[in-house]
C-alpha cells in the first residue's frame, strides 16, 4: 500500500512541476520574471515556516557557505534564468531543455567531484537527447530565439551545481524541511537586490486578477512548498532510481499542457524531437534501472 502511495506522490509531483512552465508563462503577461520568482519562493518559505517553525542554527561559515551557494544557484539563478528564457521562447521548449539537467549533474559529478561513471548507455542517451533538442530548436514552425535557448541551457548548469551542493548539505544531518527552508531564505536574500533594482513600485492591483492570484498560489504553495514534500516521500517509498523514472514524463506533460492551455504549436518535427529526448533520458538511466531490478530480485 505504501508503494502505491509513493507512485501517486511521484505522479502528482511531476504533473505539477511540468505545468509550472505554463503557469509562469501566463504570469509573465503581468509580472517581471524576478517578481514571479520572489513571490513564488516567499510564499513557499512562509508555508514551510508554518509547517516547521524550527530554524537550523548557525554552526560555522564553512557549513553556511554550502547553504548560501545552494540558495544562489538553485533558487535564484536557476529559476530566474528559466523565467527570463520563457520571455523569449515557448514553455514547451524551456521544459524540454530543462529535462537535460540529470545529464549536466552527472557530468559535473564525474569531472568536478570525480564521482560516478559515464557508461556507454549514458553517452548514447546524451547524444539522442541533443539530437532531439536540435530538432526542436531548428524547427522553423516553432518560435526560435537563441537567447531563450541559451538561458535555458545555462539554467540547467546552475541546477546541476545546486544538486551537488544539496548532496553535500544532506550529509549534515538536518531535516529536509529545515534544509529547504534555509536554502529558500538565502535564495530570497540574493534575489532581493535584483528585485529592488528592477521595479520602482509594486502594483498590488495585479493580484486582484484571479488568473494571476491563483497561478502565484500554485507556484508558491504547490510547486515550491508542497512538491518537495511529495517528491521526498516518493523517493522514500520507491527509492531514487524508481522515482526518477517519473521525471522523464515532464517534457511530454509540459508540451501537452502548453499546447492545450497556451495553444503553442506542435509540429511533427517537434514531436520527434520530444520522443528522441525522452529516449535519451531513458537510455542514460538504464544502467541504474537494471541495477535496481537486480537488487529487488535478490530481495
TrEMBL record:
InterPro entries: AA-Vitamin_Transporters, EamA_dom. Keywords: Cell membrane, Membrane, Transmembrane, Transmembrane helix. Pfam families: EamA (PF00892). It is found in: Cell membrane. Residues 5-137, 147-284 form the EamA domain. Its main location: membrane. The keyword Transmembrane helix applies. The chain crosses the membrane at residues 7-28, 34-53, 65-81, 87-109, 121-141, 147-165, 183-201, 213-233, 245-262, 268-286. It is a multi-pass membrane protein. Belongs to the EamA transporter family. This is DMT family transporter.
Amino acid at each position: 500500500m505504501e508503494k502505491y502511495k509513493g507512485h501517486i506522490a511521484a505522479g502528482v509531483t511531476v504533473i505539477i512541476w511540468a505545468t509550472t512552465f505554463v503557469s509562469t508563462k501566463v504570469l509573465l503577461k503581468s509580472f517581471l520574471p524576478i517578481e514571479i520568482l520572489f513571490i513564488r519562493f516567499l510564499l513557499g518559505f512562509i508555508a514551510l515556516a508554518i509547517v516547521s517553525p524550527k530554524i537550523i542554527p548557525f554552526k560555522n561559515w564553512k557549513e553556511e557557505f554550502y547553504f548560501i551557494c545552494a540558495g544562489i544557484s538553485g533558487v535564484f539563478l536557476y529559476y530566474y534564468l528559466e523565467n527570463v528564457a520563457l520571455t523569449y521562447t515557448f514553455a514547451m521548449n524551456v521544459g524540454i531543455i530543462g529535462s537535460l539537467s540529470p545529464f549536466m549533474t552527472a557530468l559535473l559529478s564525474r569531472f568536478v567531484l570525480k564521482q560516478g561513471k559515464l557508461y556507454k548507455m549514458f553517452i548514447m542517451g546524451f547524444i539522442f537527447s541533443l539530437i532531439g533538442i536540435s530538432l526542436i530548436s531548428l524547427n522553423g514552425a516553432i518560435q526560435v530565439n537563441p537567447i531563450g535557448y541559451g538561458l535555458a541551457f545555462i539554467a540547467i548548469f546552475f541546477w546541476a551545481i545546486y544538486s551537488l551542493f544539496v548532496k553535500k548539505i544532506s550529509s549534515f544531518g538536518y531535516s529536509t524541511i529545515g534544509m529547504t527552508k534555509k536554502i529558500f531564505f538565502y535564495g530570497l536574500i540574493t534575489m532581493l537586490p535584483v528585485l529592488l533594482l528592477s521595479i520602482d513600485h509594486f502594483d498590488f492591483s495585479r493580484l486582484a486578477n484571479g488568473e494571476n492570484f491563483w497561478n502565484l498560489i500554485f507556484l508558491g504553495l504547490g510547486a515550491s512548498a508542497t512538491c518537495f514534500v511529495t517528491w521526498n516521500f516518493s523517493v522514500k517509498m520507491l527509492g531514487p532510481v524508481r522515482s526518477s523514472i517519473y521525471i522523464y514524463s515532464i517534457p511530454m506533460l509540459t508540451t501537452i499542457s502548453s499546447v492545450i492551455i497556451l495553444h503553442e504549436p506542435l509540429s511533427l518535427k517537434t514531436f520527434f524531437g520530444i520522443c528522441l529526448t525522452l529516449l535519451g533520458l531513458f537510455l542514460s538511466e538504464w544502467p541504474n534501472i537494471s541495477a535496481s531490478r537486480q537488487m529487488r530480485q535478490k530481495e
